[in-house]
Give the backbone structure.
Amino acid sequence: MPLIELENCSFVHNHLLIFAGFTWKLNPGEQWLVTGDSGSGKTSFFEALNGKYRLAEGHFKFKGQSGQEAINLWRFKTAAVYFKNTVMNTATNYYQQRYNSQDADDTLTVRRFIFGDSMVDEGAYHSILEAFHTSIPLDKELIKLSNGENRKILIARALLSKPEILILDNPYTGLDKSSRNDLNTLIDQLIKSGLIVLLSSKQTVVPSCITQVLMLENRKIKYAGPVADFPVSTPPISMVSFPVCFENLVQNDFDIAVQLNQVTVRYEEKILLDRLNLTIRRGEKWAIQGPNGAGKTLVASLIYADHPQSYVNDIVLFDQRRGKGESIWMIKEKTGFLSPEFHFYFDENQTAFEVALSGLKDNPYRPGTITGATKDLARSLFEFYKIEHLSDLPMYALSSGFQRLVLFIRVIVKNPPFLLLDEPFHNFDQETIQRSKHLLDEFCKERTMVFITHDEKEIPSCVTRRFIMNKIEPG
């Protein structure tokens, strides 16, 4: 008898049909990987299971219950971690606040986020993090978590609720290779202890205990069956011609894009960066790599003029030493920036096309002009990625992968001389990654770029220099 069964189910949200005639079942002992390209419906599938969408037609059965009662029981037995989750309250916090300790004193801590007003099971919390070979203090402000730490905290909170079923939607996002392997080991251990796991991912290395694959395409089932029978194929991506015409490069009149001289960042006794040196000249393309906690995103915050300790360090940006009266808006104006955290600070009611054009307003004191040529560039990029149909949709209606893609397009439309990309391909499928690498190779011929990633395969071929960072261990 199936543990859960969906028979010809149709789910609706705000009169919008999410799934139609969906049939799927989970039998005892099965562990499922849910896969598919961006926008295929992976996250929506999990949200439908957890009752976010109204069951308009069909039969939803779980443990002898059916309909809404079955959905309610499923939700009670299930813990879910979504990429869309963020432990930062974007309604009351601003992007740079994570680097301003004096502004974060009243923000939520890890302890309050996980345990609320309940009894604190510190032993169980620390044992989960030990599986990742890491430690995150319970009194640390959530707004100061790195993207990788954010993911680990969300997973820890889900496991501490002791669910029978665990849903993990793109859990590898923001984790380095070592942490991804640790997560796979942890999931295998949880499955062996009796937990049922539903996991979505774009990566091929998944826990060994996964038994089944559900592949979605346009919110319909393309394959559902044993992992051993899943047809793995990688169709060639043809991009002989490049249909995008970029605007002429402007503001490219600097010699040194970035120079960090013996840069040290510390909070009280904790040293986050120790006498770091890095020089990036105009036209160079760099990859910054290293494990979670090495300080890669911290370096990005110094370059993007967000971190207050940049003023007490010897830092040069676009030939100008920080602290000499330059405007941070002039720095942001020349920079095309994208990071995992940046994703959460956009008005979700704006259309995808409006967000793609919004980069020209990064300097509020002299916003760029949105010309007909700029709009044509944006349209050609939407066509290049085959997402023209998303242009007029609000951001909240897009999948997380498509939201990230729109923000990546925003960087290109802005036409900056310098690109600062921190894990820019999060939640991209393989075709989108290949297209984006090809685009960067063309776009960056005369531009300067810093590309931060955990995945060597994501690095564009135009990158010729590496900067490897190591985590500073407590002394």
Observations:
- The longest helix spans residues 177-192.
- Residues 256-468 form a domain with the Rossmann fold fold (CATH 3.40.50.300).
- The chain is about 25% helix and 25% strand.
- The CA atoms of residues 192 and 214 lie 21 Å apart.
